[in-house]
Design a protein that fits this description.
Number of domains: 1
Order of helices and strands: HHEEEEHEEEE
Number of strands: 8
Largest sheet: 6 strands, antiparallel
Helix content: 10-25%
């Protein structure tokens, strides 16, 4: 199945998760079970200590995983997050953030993934996320 263009995946995400649109999250790539998304710098997403907040990073990780799924399902995916384990390894600072998601295993009922988050312009992972999603099958008629 040919993945939809990244602009189409971004439009699907912005429509399905309005918070992603409000934060201007960009889908830079999404194909073959992986995705790269970008959260531009936003002062309103900083926490005390002048670093990007945990809730913003968890939201970004969730969006990145959905982008990876949309890239392998032709843009049609209604799976939902079941679990998310987040390990904050170091603060990111006040900057734009990149999240790389990859599908580790995709089964009929469950999908398992991993997301690495880093400051834009750096290769140093600041947040490591593992997640599982429940596949929602279309209703039978």
């Amino acid at each position: 199945m040919q993945p939809p263009p990244t602009a189409e995946i971004q439009a699907i995400i912005h429509a399905g998760v309005p918070l992603a649109a409000a934060w201007n999250i960009e889908v830079l790539a999404a194909a073959e079970g992986s995705a790269l998304v970008r959260l531009p710098f936003r002062a309103d997403l900083l926490r005390p200590g002048n670093t990007v907040s945990g809730p913003a990073l968890m939201g970004l990780a969730d969006v990145a995983m959905w982008a990876a799924l949309l890239g392998v399902t032709g843009g049609k995916d209604e799976s939902v997050t079941s679990t998310m384990t987040v390990n904050f390894l170091r603060p990111l600072g006040a900057c734009a953030v990149l999240a790389e998601a990859r599908i580790v295993k995709r089964g009929r009922r469950m999908v398992f993934g991993e997301i690495l988050i880093r400051p834009e312009g750096s290769d140093d992972t600041a947040v490591h996320v593992t997640t599982s999603w429940v596949v929602i099958a279309p209703a039978e008629r």
